[in-house]
Amino acid sequence: DAGVTQSPTHLIKTRGQQVTLRCSPKSGHDTVSWYQQALGQGPQFIFQYYEEEERQRGNFPDRFSGHQFPNYSSELNVNALLLGDSALYLCASSSRGQDTEAFFGQGTRLTVV
Amino acid sequence: GNSVTQMEGPVTLSEEAFLTINCTYTATGYPSLFWYVQYPGEGLQLLLKATKADDKGSNKGFEATYRKETTSFHLEKGSVQVSDSAVYFCALINNYGQNFVFGPGTRLSVLP
Asked: How many CB pairs under 8 A join A and B?
């Protein structure tokens, strides 16, 4: 079992560009959540996807959007990148109703220059 | 709203010293509580959890007890090793289908 897989592991983008991050959940999981972890801080919840729909959203602007595919994998898109978007982006997967059994991926380190 | 507070770091200890990292929370209802560990350059690994009051989570020599009366979930280890050097996050999840709320993290450095 590969666990939660995120790609790419590192990414450098220029301010104003757009970026797409990808997440494959652990086998058997159908719910994907995304978190942003700025340097030296705890992860902050961005949004959660289940049945290909956004079910919950944290306090992030509309520049942050996502998608979930029929195979439960997910993408996080960020438009009009700002320097402050530089962070580690973590994906967590779980089975619906079993959020206490969530698994986290290794994250994608995004640097905006 | 839900929130987690944990002791400021960094915490520096000698090998075999006793470790305590304090964590307190504010939440509605009856949250589940977690400790996650993050090694340099890596994602989050679940260290231990407790899903109801008075439960004790334990793993790899680490322990934490869910204290509802003091809204606390302090992490302890009797004898730390250099390999325990990492950042430790206290977190909660509240109710069905909700998201994790994390504390700011405590960096632990263990010196040989």
From this structure: 60
